[in-house]
Amino acid sequence: MGELDDSLNSEERRILLAIARQALEESVRGEPLSNLDLENLPPRLIEPGATFVTLTINKELRGCIGALEVTQPLAEDVRIHAVAAGLEDYRFPPVQPDELPEISIEISRLTAPQLSECNDAEDLLKRLRPGVDGVVLKEGNRRATFLPQVWEKVPEPEKFLSMLCKKMGAPPDYWRGGTVEIFTYQVEEFHE
To answer: In the chain, how many domains are there?
Structure first.
C-alpha cells in the first residue's frame, strides 16, 4: 500500500463499518463477540491491514485506538480496534450502552509508515503535507502518532509536532533535537 491507490470500494467500506459497529455494540453491552466469518468476506478484507478506529459524539472525540503495524486480517484489525476504542482508550471512561446511538464510527486504513529522510527541523517542516501525512514520533520505547485528520484541528506544522511531542511525554520542541525518528504515513478514511 503506497499512497493508498488501492482504495476500498463502497461495499468493502460498508462491510468494515458494519463489523466495527457490531463489535462495538456487543462489547459495550458485555456480550460475547459474534464470530467473524473471514471465508465469506471479500478477499481484500481478509488481506493483512492496519487501521485506527475513531469514535465521536457530535464530532467530539470519544475514543481512538489503532495499530501502525500490520499484524492480522483487515476485518479483524477493524473489529479489535472498534472494541478497544470503546472500552480501552485511557483518555475516556468506557462507552456506555446509552451512548451507542449517538456514536459515529470512522475507520482509517493506513499505509506502512516511512522513515522521514529530513536533514533538519526546517527541512521536515517543508516536507510535511498538512491534511495528507500522519506522523509518528519514535524514540526508544516511546512512540506517539497523530492521524492526518488531526491537521483539521491543528493546521500549523510546528504546533502539530509540538502537540505530538507532548502526547509522547516529551517537551514540546523535542522534535527539533534530532534524536527522535520521524515517520509519515497516509490513510484512507471513511465513516458512517
So the answer is: 2
CATH of the domain at 65: 3.30.700.20
Q: Note the pTM of the prediction, 2 decimals.
A: 0.89
Phi, psi of 100 (to 5 degrees): -55, -45
Mean pLDDT of 40-67: 96
Range of the domain at 172: 114-186
